[in-house]
Amino acid sequence: MAAMTTGFAETGTRERTRTRRLAFARTRWFRLTTQLVLGGGVLVAVVARVGTKPFVHGLLSLDARSIGGAVLLCAVATGASAWRWQFIAGRLGVGLPWTTAVALYYRSQFLNSVLPGGVLGDADRAVTHGRSVDSIGRASRAIVIERSVGQAVQVALALVVLAFFGREFEGIVLAVVGAGLAVLVVPGITAAAASARVRRALRHERDELRAGLGTAAGFIGVAFASAVVVACHVAILAIATNAVGAHVPPDQLVPVALVVLLAASIPFNVGGWGPREGAAGWAFAVAGLGASAGVAASTLYGVLTLISLAPGAIVFMTHRKEESS
Fold first, then answer.
1. Which of 43, 86, 90, 134 is such that its CA lies 20 to 30 A from the CA of 288?
2. How many Cα atoms occupy the beta-carbon half-sphere of 325 within 13 Å?
3. Could you read off the pLDDT of 15-71 as tens digits, one per residue?
4. Half-sphere exposure of 253 toward its Cβ, with a 13 Å CA cutoff?
5. Is residue 270 within 8 Å of residue 40, measured between CB atoms?
6. How many Cα atoms within 13 Å fall on the side-chain side of residue 235?
């Protein structure tokens, strides 16, 4: 009996320890620390591989012409993203004017670019919009759908382009994307097969997605806006690549750029830095363009993007002043 009691006590202790560990792993502090460590680790690895000269070269390649082109392209991309958000939010009953959507989207992009993880700006956008319409839940849902569709279109475009023009990347990228989908899909299918509650939750998510996108015409419009966003960022990276002196034909640059942008969407980064530079060095090297050129182009791309998001900083500071007054 004493041994049995001791066994129950030990089991209870292990369960409590496991629960505390899971709770700690879900904390914002743990997630941010993980993102900083992983993103910073990638940067350290890139510096160890190519040195600091490519980063310096990218910074010194900044000029007025590159800034002007990047600002214009970023404005088009932000306008398209804001329209995508406005459309989906309107379908979900929490619509907002396009000009307001543009301002808030600029602000969220700015916050994403200076804060770790790359998603805190979207969380701020959801809360700000949700409070204005008295429905943070619906506002958050609109942003989740909007960002998810944008990511899906980006991945689809990358896979199509790589299939025709990026055979040197196709095997690795397809393997990575396949593994990522497996990590997301397989557990979901397994859980749905075992739990009626999970099946109800998945049906609810499906219905919300249908409600947000509406008809086939609505989906086509949202997909087209997402394609415009991707094209603008590919063009900004092309500007950066040309500015650092790496003259690459479009049919070679576009697949490289899409690989870099896929890596840039990985949330484990330091203000956008980390996986993007690692992927740029690797992709440029595989394409025969040199890892240093890729890191320099990625560095300049990051700087150009940050400059182009200056309106977001202005919106952020204006909002802070209004809150404090």
1. 43
2. 6
3. 555 555 444 445 656 666 666 666 667 767 777 778 889 999 999 999 999 999 999
4. 20
5. yes
6. 18
Burial class of residue 160 (count of CB atoms within 10 Å of its CB; 0-12, 13-18, 19+): exposed
Say whether 261 sits in a helix, a strand or coil. Answer: helix
Measured between alpha carbons, how far is 260 from 171 in angstroms, rounded to an integer?
Answer: 16
The whole-angstrom distance between residue 129's C-alpha and the CA centroid of its chain comes to 20
Contact 222, 152 (CB under 8 A): no
Q: Is the separation of the CB atoms in 23 and 261 below 8 Å?
A: no
Give 216's contacts (C-beta < 8 A, 6+ positions apart): none
Report the chain's C-alpha Rg in angstroms: 22
**What's the rounded Cα separation, in Å, for the pair 233 and 238?**
8
Alpha helices in 244-290 (DSSP H): 250-264, 275-286
What pLDDT digit, counting tens, does each position of 235-244 carry?
999 999 999 9
CA dihedral sign of residues 134, 146, 234, 274: positive
253 with 241: CB under 8 angstroms?
yes
Residue 179's alpha-carbon distances to 27, 31, 124, 170, 174, in angstroms, are: 26, 22, 30, 14, 8
Per-residue pLDDT reduced to its tens digit, 171-191: 666 666 666 666 556 666 666
Query: What is the reported pTM?
Result: 0.81
Closest Cα to residue 151, out of 95, 223, 204?
223
Q: Read off the pLDDT of residues 126-184 as tens digits, 9 standing for 90 and up.
A: 999 999 899 898 999 999 989 989 999 998 898 888 888 877 776 666 666 666 666 55
